[in-house]
Amino acid sequence: MISTLKIWKLTSLLLLINVTVFVMESLSGVSILNPTVKDLLIWGANYAPLTLTGDAWRLFTSMFLHVGMIHLAVNCWALYLWGIYTEFYYGRRYYLALYFSAGLMGSVLSVIHNLINATYSNASFIVSAGASGAIMGLGGALIVAAWRPRTNLHPEQTLTLKPLLVIMAINFALGFSVPGIDNAAHIGGIITGALLALVFSLTEKSSDAKRKTLRIVTFIVLAMSVVFLFHQLEIIGADLQPYRADILSQLASQH
Predict the structure, then answer these.
(1) Average per-residue pLDDT in the chain?
(2) Residue 211 contacts by C-beta under 8 Å, 6 or more apart in sequence?
(3) 2-245: which CATH number, 1.10.3660.10, 1.20.1540.10, 3.30.70.590, 3.40.30.10?
(4) Which of 69, 57, 56 is nearest to 22 (CA)?
(5) Is 186 a residue of the active site?
(6) Among the options 124, 132, 231, 253, which is catalytic?
(7) Rounded to the nearest 5°, which phi and psi values hold at 97?
(8) How confident is the model at residue 26 (pLDDT cuts 50, 70, 90)?
(9) Of 20, 33, 62, 195, which one's alpha carbon is 20 to 30 angstroms from that of 74?
(10) Using CA atoms, how far apart are residues 108 and 224, in angstroms rounded to an integer?
(11) Active-site residue (options: 107, 124, 186, 206)
């Protein structure tokens, strides 16, 4: 495993960042098994009443926070298993862009789901944290890689589609049966990862210049779409502004 991590530098770096953030949390006094909601919010978890009222950065920081050691271990294991192949197959630049795009879209979809539940079902807002959205994006990308493999791969380097679909089905089955799992983030991640992987596949046989241009344009359009969508969410969530001061006051008094 150690030698493999030396080869797949980007996956190693992402693993290191996630573990480092967790260690920093624990050194500050956060429980390694059952962190409180307060601790998660202080460290940057995604929470609609804060995210939509000035803390857009939580869409990003929440990708590196985990709700305890078990949550971290499961996500790191999945990142290792899926990350090393994704890095090999798509290359580091596309892999990095895909990872963060899937993670951010997962965070945005989580906020949307929270708003809908709070508006129409009177449900409480949930605190969301973890790399799961980004990792599910890798899973979506691997499904496309198995479905439409690159033409220059050796047979032993290709993936089998059925096991990936089974793993995804199990993940979603657990997600909808176990409370506390942010399925919206998972769905946002896998859809984004699959779409970006499909663009990668469809442009594979294009000329270098055309391929690069189409892929860059795709990410630009995606980024603009995320910004526009989030801006609309901020407008819709303007009614949450009165709660922001109360929440921050509570966090400050308990910190």
Answers:
(1) 89
(2) 203, 204
(3) 1.20.1540.10
(4) 69
(5) yes
(6) 132
(7) -65, -40
(8) very high
(9) 195
(10) 13
(11) 186
